[in-house]
């Protein structure tokens, strides 16, 4: 690696992206949490939270498809706006001067809502008497934020900052890989952070605009998926379908390869989540009980997996020795227990009354009976929260299948999506059921329709389970 002729350029790009991510992306969740905390309309606040959190549930493959649609030369909304202003279209994903900005911007768009949850939980723990005393002294909202909220958030900010610095060089494989092509060289501009200048009505206006930037990409993709090929290729589609048609969805619904990948993802998500919850609960319960003598050793082993992660090549050799290469079980078994979810469930189990478990033992109930009859029923909120985490991870999994599965029959939906994004033309067997619809579709329309169908399950389920998702984060922050 050190002797590679391009080593200095690769190192320079890695350091710059890590620096930009630290300086630009890290403060965004803090600002969003403070702004959301200032909203007094509960219904509007919950709507904003739902919209801001939603991008985190998308995989990097889906996000890359959305950004490709937005920045497309022919049908992209951004280039349409430039044309309206009399400017020439720009190939954003094909010019090296824009790739760093797109990488950092997409990271902010996807993950800022997730970080906001943590800071909102910290803000909720601030003593309300401090704000009442400040109001008596005549302090305005901005002064209260500066003098009370920010100092109270400082311990949380420092802890997360140290964790962020620890991942300084780890920008994420999927995040970078799905955007790269031979035309983007590693250079770009530094994004400017937006100063916090919103107050009362201005705060609501800013958050409304922010919510629009979160939801408009979905609307644009939906509009393109419902438009004719002529309208898409002519750049006529923005946020409303042009020449409304279902032809793109007819093609996708008739594509056997798509449904095969969809079925793989559904199966992996359902069975993988059940295995994850069973394995995590089986390990977390004994470690949560003070009478278990070896719990410190188990916790140490789990922490080792967090601090030291195996490189790709040794990991591949291990999977090969376990006969998991080109085996669909590789999507489930290696990640049966997630360290973060283990500690969350351990914290929840530790809060259960010890007297209840002692009473069950006196009545002759065994350890497995205690787990399934007492612990699990009392831990439904934690199980639901971690079930969401595991299910979203399985549904959005991409790199594991890319590394270890060579047979297209076992590819999940994310790998199929990425292969579709990489192809400029759609080739179909003349004997296929969708061959007759191919002449009336376009590659872009098929891609957008596939994105909508692949995203729909998570988008539908998420609003109903949002409270469990937030609770799962807060459970892990409680000291047992």
TrEMBL record:
List the Gene3D superfamilies hit by this protein, alphabetically.
MetI-like
Keywords annotated in UniProt: Cell membrane, Membrane, Transmembrane, Transmembrane helix, Transport
Q: Which CDD domains match?
A: TM_PBP2
Q: Which PROSITE patterns match?
A: ABC_TM1
**What is the originating organism of this protein?**
Phytophthora kernoviae 00238/432
* Transmembrane region(s): 15-36, 57-78, 145-165, 198-219, 261-285, 297-317, 329-349, 370-392, 445-465
Annotated membrane topology? Multi-pass membrane protein
A Gene Ontology BP annotation from the UniProt entry:
transmembrane transport
* Name assigned to this protein: ABC transmembrane type-1 domain-containing protein
> Where, subcellularly, is it found?
Cell membrane
Residue span(s) of domain ABC transmembrane type-1? 11-227, 262-465
Q: Which GO terms describe its cellular component?
A: plasma membrane
């Amino acid at each position: 690696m050190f002797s590679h002729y391009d080593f200095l350029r690769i190192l320079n790009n890695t350091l710059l992206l890590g620096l930009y991510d630290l300086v630009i992306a890290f403060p965004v969740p803090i600002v969003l949490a403070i702004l959301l905390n200032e909203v007094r309309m509960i219904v509007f606040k919950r709507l904003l939270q739902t919209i801001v959190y939603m991008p985190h549930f998308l995989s990097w493959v889906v996000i890359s498809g959305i950004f490709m649609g937005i920045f497309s030369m022919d049908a992209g909304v951004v280039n349409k706006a430039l044309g309206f202003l009399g400017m020439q279209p720009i190939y954003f994903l094909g010019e090296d001067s824009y790739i760093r900005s797109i990488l950092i911007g997409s990271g902010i768009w996807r993950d800022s809502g997730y970080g906001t949850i943590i800071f909102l939980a910290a803000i909720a723990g601030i003593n309300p008497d401090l704000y009442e005393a400040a109001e008596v002294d005549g302090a305005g909202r901005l002064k209260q934020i500066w003098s009370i909220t920010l100092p109270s958030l400082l311990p949380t900010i420092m802890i997360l900052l140290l964790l962020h610095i620890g991942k300084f060089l780890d920008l994420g494989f999927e995040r970078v890989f799905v955007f790269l092509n031979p035309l983007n060289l590693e250079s770009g501009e530094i994004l400017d952070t937006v100063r916090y200048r919103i107050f009362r009505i201005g705060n609501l206006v800013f958050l409304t605009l922010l919510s629009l930037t979160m939801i408009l990409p979905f609307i644009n993709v939906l509009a393109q998926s419902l438009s004719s090929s002529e309208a898409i290729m002519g750049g006529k589609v923005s946020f409303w379908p042009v020449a409304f048609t279902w032809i793109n969805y007819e093609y996708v619904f008739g594509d056997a390869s798509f449904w095969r990948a969809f079925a793989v993802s559904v199966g992996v998500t359902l069975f993988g989540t059940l295995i994850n919850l069973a394995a995590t609960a089986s390990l977390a319960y004994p470690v949560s009980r003070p009478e278990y003598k070896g719990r410190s050793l188990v916790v140490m082993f789990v922490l080792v997996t967090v601090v030291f992660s195996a490189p790709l090549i040794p990991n591949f050799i291990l999977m090969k020795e376990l006969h998991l290469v080109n085996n669909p079980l590789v999507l489930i078994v290696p990640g049966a227990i997630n360290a973060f979810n283990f500690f969350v469930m351990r914290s929840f189990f530790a809060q259960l009354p010890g007297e209840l478990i002692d009473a069950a033992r006196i009545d002759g109930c065994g350890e497995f009976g205690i787990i399934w009859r007492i612990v699990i029923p009392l831990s439904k909120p934690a199980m639901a929260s971690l079930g969401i985490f595991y299910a979203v991870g399985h549904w959005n999994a991409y790199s594991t299948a890319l590394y270890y599965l060579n047979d297209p029959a076992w590819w999940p939906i994310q790998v199929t999506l990425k292969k579709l994004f990489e192809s400029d033309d759609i080739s179909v067997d003349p004997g296929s059921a969708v061959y007759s619809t191919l002449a009336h579709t376009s590659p872009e329309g098929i891609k957008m329709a596939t994105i909508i169908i692949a995203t729909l399950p998570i988008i539908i389920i998420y609003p109903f389970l949002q409270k469990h998702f937030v609770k799962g984060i807060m459970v892990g922050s409680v000291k047992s």
